[in-house]
Specification:
This protein is α+β, with helices and mostly antiparallel strands. The protein contains 3 helices and 3 strands; from the N terminus they run βαααββ. It has helices at about 20-25, 25-35, 40; strands at about 5-10, 45-50, 55. It starts with a strand and ends with a strand.
């Protein structure tokens, strides 16, 4: 069982369609991508979305 990481979405986004974790460009996403070799393999990551009002799984 992997640890669960719940993070908020960010205002900054890449253009086009991407997986949720790859879409956002905010500080937390940059920090995780830079410091955790495979964040999606290391954690079960859920993103809290203001638009959708719930957590969005990254898979």
């Amino acid at each position: 069982m992997k640890p669960v990481l719940i993070i908020g979405c960010s205002k900054g986004k890449l253009p086009g369609s991407h997986k949720a974790f790859e879409l956002y460009t905010g500080h937390v996403y940059k920090l995780l991508s830079k410091n955790v070799p495979a964040p999606l393999e290391s954690y079960d990551i859920f993103i809290l979305s203001g638009r959708y009002g719930s957590s969005v799984p990254t898979k």
